[in-house]
TrEMBL record:
Catalyzes the formation of 5-oxo-L-proline from L-gamma-glutamyl-L-epsilon-lysine. This is Gamma-glutamylaminecyclotransferase. Gene3D superfamilies: Gamma-glutamyl cyclotransferase-like (3.10.490.10). GO terms for cellular component: cytosol.
């Protein structure tokens, strides 16, 4: 099992959360909430209003999201879903645990007790330079006050 931190449309209550609970795509178990230890720019970009965490450590905000443990099948699905490695790249990042619900072995409990876990995160280094000038967010909600509603894949032209 691998740990994955999701900050955008895959979170609970967001448009693509359905994929996280679709066992035909693999297993994903919610462990808790967290935020990036380092600051990163989280922008909403492109004509489909997609959230992107730009891989520029030290800039932006501590980005909030959810921590999951996933099996290999779900990890392969997420790689494909996230267009990895072209659109997003899957990298290990340190995540500060905000709330922990996870149950597991001693190592998992100890990591959570220390308050920091390593998770795979889908961020990007392959973005247009003008995205750096977009507003930075500390969390994402597709129906947030930014007014940039996410466009589902099935609704895109």
């Amino acid at each position: 099992m691998a740990r994955v931190f999701v900050y955008g449309t895959l979170k609970k209550g967001q448009p693509n959360y359905k994929h996280m609970i679709n066992t035909a795509k693999g297993l994903a178990k919610f462990q808790g909430t967290g935020r990036t230890v380092e600051k990163y720019p989280l922008v909403i970009a492109g004509k489909y209003n997609i959230p992107y965490m730009l891989n520029i450590p030290g800039t932006g905000h501590h980005v909030a999201g959810e921590i999951y443990t996933v099996d290999d099948q779900m990890l392969r699905f997420l790689d494909e879903f996230e267009g990895c490695p072209d659109m997003y790249q899957r990298t290990l990042m340190r995540i500060e645990v905000v709330e922990w619900e996870g149950k597991g072995g001693a190592g998992e409990g100890r990591a959570a007790a220390e308050g920091i876990v390593e998770c795979f995160v889908y961020s990007t280094t392959t973005y247009p330079p003008e995205w750096v000038s977009l507003p930075y967010h500390d969390s994402y909600d597709s129906s947030g006050k930014h007014g940039l509603s996410y466009v589902l894949r099935e609704s895109r032209d």
